[in-house]
Amino acid sequence: MTRTIPHFVGGSLLTPDAGRFSDVFDPSTGAVQARVPLASADDVRRVIDDAEAAQPAWAATNPQKRARVLLRFLDLVHRDMDSLARLLSSEHGKTFDDAKGDIQRGLEVIEFSAGAPHLLKGEFATGAGTGIDVYSMRQPLGVVAGITPFNFPAMIPLWKAGPALAAGNSFILKPSERDPSVPVRLAELFHEAGLPAGVFNVVHGDKEAVDTLLTDPRIQAVGFVGSTPIAEYIYSTAAAHGKRAQCFGGAKNHMVVMPDADLDQVADALIGAGYGSAGERCMAISVAVPVGEETADALAAKLAERVAELRVGPSLAEGVDYGPLVARSAVERVEGYIQQGVDEGATLLADGRGFTVPGHEAGFYLGPTLFDHVTTDMAIYREEVFGPVLVIARAADYEQALAMASDHEFGNGVSIFTRDGDAARDFTARVNVGMVGVNVPIPVPIAYFSFGGWKKSGFGDLNQHGTDAFRFYTKTKTVTSRWLSDTVREGASFVIPTMS
Ligand code: NAD
Question: Does the domain formed by 3-249+457-479 have CATH 2.60.40.10?
Fold first, then answer.
């Protein structure tokens, strides 16, 4: 009998025995290892009932006490780090060390969010008029929802939940149905840390569950991360139903390689950023843009050498650089892109199709793939491939390289490798992309700055984590207060108050 992964609702695990289910695979073997329930609209509405009932008491708990729950949660996740990372790796397919990184990056936002007592402080101005003080306060929104992708099953739920909970909201997480176990474990740990029942809930599901969250008037805000078409759909549907929404989408991150860069450093950086986690990262570098033919020829040779040495295997095996993709359909999609690249005339330097791991022939593997002479009209340049495929798109000069990154419809991350401070400074100022690295291949900002792409990579006004997240999960109330002595009588005024 296949194991069923439970929801976590109202402070307890909930395992339905009827309804719709979806298979959860072990990508390393290709075997089904569990099934996950897909909540109905009624199921989701019951979760919202619980979250709504729990929220006022949580909001009334002082922020320091809310922060202490997050601090206890940090300790519990560290205690269980290895078992969580193994569980994550077994459903996602990323390596054990990379799975620990996924969890750790989430914890860094929990650490930041534990600063809630400071982050929620408002502003105060005295003497705005005779006896008049003006101050502002940040209040929680109520019940908020997070809808998250498969590729960071710990980090992104924690990026959403940390600031939302610290600000006094209750939170409903609809994680990816492909790797749903770690979010449930995180919910259990929040409760072990002292979070009241109903404040953090995990409900599994597909479009039916998501649409219920998007349309129910009790949900005040929706934080989404996933592919661009779904991000656009979530953003417009949530807005049409009067909700706040921040929706982050796909990416095509370029790395511009200037002729003065150290090409061994560049090649190492590109191999890690292009093929780590099988390329299934929104901040993966998928396009290398060497400037000048000489740089391009030398870089292509160095990359081809390194690609031939990459070790691909089961996610929990020792010494593996990257593991399988998340699903058979993902392998087929990426193989389709590789064929399209060949058909459109790119030069295939390494072909990862048909890759198998002995003893794991049914696993979802794809070898590293490298293309050269890719042009901006090709599908493998224009579209997000989301697999272990790195393309070299040559630029004649710096201005062309800058224009390529800036003109691409995605604008998540970009980096430049150079020893020229002038070029780097010009690039950071002019490039039309949300997150920029200088000699840093994956420029994911640290937790106390904010994370968000531009153009088709992000929809909404405020970014994830950093102070933006606290703005997103709170509403500002501004109070103008005047205390008059009993003897002052000014009479009625029919003119709008001004400072004159
Ligand atoms: P996805 O869009 O398929 O799914 C994301 C979430 O949306 C899941 O919870 C899924 O159940 C739900 N969903 C899927 N189809 C839906 C529909 N029709 N209606 C309502 N909900 C639906 O994305 P994915 O494959 O899980 O994740 C990979 C994508 O996420 C990539 O495009 C990657 O670039 C992107 N991503 C972006 C960022 C970022 O910060 N910009 C970070 C991580 C991942």
Answer: no
